[in-house]
Amino acid sequence: MTIHRPESFRAVDWKDDALVLLDQRELPRQEIYRSYTDAGEVAAAIRCMVVRGAPAIGIAAAYGYVLAVRAACAAAPTHWRSHLRPQIERLAASRPTAVNLAWALARMDRAAERVDGPPAAALLAEAIAIHEEDVAANRRMGEIGAAYIGSGAVVLTHCNAGALATGGYGTALGVVRAASARGSIAAVYADETRPWLQGARLTAWELARDGIPVTLIADAAAAHLMRTRGVDWVIVGADRIAANGDVANKIGTYQLALAARAHGTRFMVVAPSSTFDAGIAEGPSIPIELRGEEELLDAGGRRLAPAGVSAWNPVFDVTPAGLIDVIVTERGAIERPDVAGMRRVLGA
Ligand code: MRU
Predict the structure, then answer these.
(1) Which CATH number covers residue 29?
(2) 271 and 339 together in one domain
(3) Longest Cα pair distance anywhere in the chain, in angstroms?
(4) Do 331 and 228 belong together in one domain?
(5) CA 59 to CA 127: how far, in whole Å?
(6) 3 in any annotated domain
(7) Pick from 70, 203, 225, 294: most CB atoms within 10 A?
């Protein structure tokens, strides 16, 4: 089976019976591909951000499920299901906010229940289907989102919601790619996205490779950019979207939405249906990942803050639906999202 993507790199791939991940901690300095044949190591790779971005995490976990099944079959050919659970729970616990992870594992569970006979090939087919459907959803969202972008648009994006964060093409950057192909984009700005610098390292890298000019700004420059140069659209991805349209995404997204509202800048969230969590009524119930304080206290292996200083490092925040102009999904767009609009496009 082939997975069609235009990019010259693959963040997540299945090759020679192994999961292959482009190590995003090393970009843009080096392009290192790491091969995984053990589900526990896949869970560790998700946790330490070799692979990151909600859809890419889900896809990597689906391939990790295949590796777990293979190991369970080797240990207990006739009772493989009973050997599987601890490995799957490790994958599920690797990162808490991106619901695509739980979504992909639940879909793999359903496929595993249907299997009659040796399971590895059927489950690999399911993981590849999850991967291919994500790329197709991104292309569809690119077209739907690009229809909102008028000519000469100035766009600001946050974090990395591109091919690196998905099966390919990207969510927010898929819209940027599609709008750019239509000739609608005058300028793209990217927030550097402290502390992991997904904007500076990853978004800048992948847009530059596509020949889409991008200008980097400090996160703290966003409101000043809107007031002095003008921004038509903020376009971001999502890690989890509640039933009422509240959106969890990379820390800093909420303050961008507040600044956008104050400056007449429109705010677009682009996410596949696998990012929706109908089981969560409102954003404040979404689990927010807290990462280690050293991510803020140090930079590039050097201490920034004086000894004895502590840090608080939530890596996602929640943007209330009322600050969002449109949520773009592969099933359609939801303008001024609320419970009814979300249900209309996505079902219960
Ligand atoms: O911590 P990360 O890099 O996994 O966070 C990624 C984001 O917040 C993205 O905006 C989100 O996952 C959408 S990716 C299409």
Answers:
(1) 1.20.120.420
(2) yes
(3) 66
(4) yes
(5) 7
(6) no
(7) 203
Number of domains in the chain: 2
Same domain, yes or no: 52 and 105: yes
The H or E element that residue 33 is part of is strand 33-36
Which of the listed residues 97, 117, 137 is the one where a domain comes to its end?
Answer: 137
| CA 97 to centroid of ligand 1, rounded, Å | 10
330 contacts: CB under 8 Å, gap ≥ 6: 136, 137, 138, 140, 141, 144, 272, 273
Q: Work out the burial of residue 338: count CB atoms within 10 Å of its CB; fewer than 13 is exposed, 13-18 middle, 19 or more buried.
A: middle
Question: For a pocket test of ligand 1, which of 250, 291, 318 has the largest count of ligand atoms closer than 8 A to its C-beta?
Answer: 250
Q: What is the pLDDT along the chain (348 residues), one digit of tens a residue?
A: 444 445 679 999 999 999 999 999 999 999 999 999 999 999 999 999 999 999 999 999 999 999 999 999 999 998 999 999 999 999 999 999 999 999 999 999 999 999 998 899 999 999 999 999 999 999 999 999 999 999 999 999 999 999 999 999 999 999 999 999 999 999 999 999 999 999 999 999 999 999 999 999 999 999 999 999 999 999 999 999 999 999 999 999 999 999 999 999 999 999 999 999 999 999 999 999 999 999 999 988 899 999 999 999 999 999 999 999 999 999 999 999 999 999 999 997
| Cα 54 to ligand 1 centroid, rounded to whole Å | 5
Domain boundary residue, one of 93, 120, 137: 137
Q: What is the DSSP letter of 200?
A: I
Expressed in angstroms and rounded, the spacing between residue 165 Cα and the centre of ligand 1 is: 6
Whether 239 sits among the annotated catalytic residues: the reply is yes
In this prediction the pTM is: 0.96
Residues 108 and 214 in one domain: no
**Domain range enclosing 318:** 140-346
Tell me, yes or no, whether 198 and 341 share the same domain.
yes
Q: Which one is catalytic: 13, 134, 232, 239?
A: 239
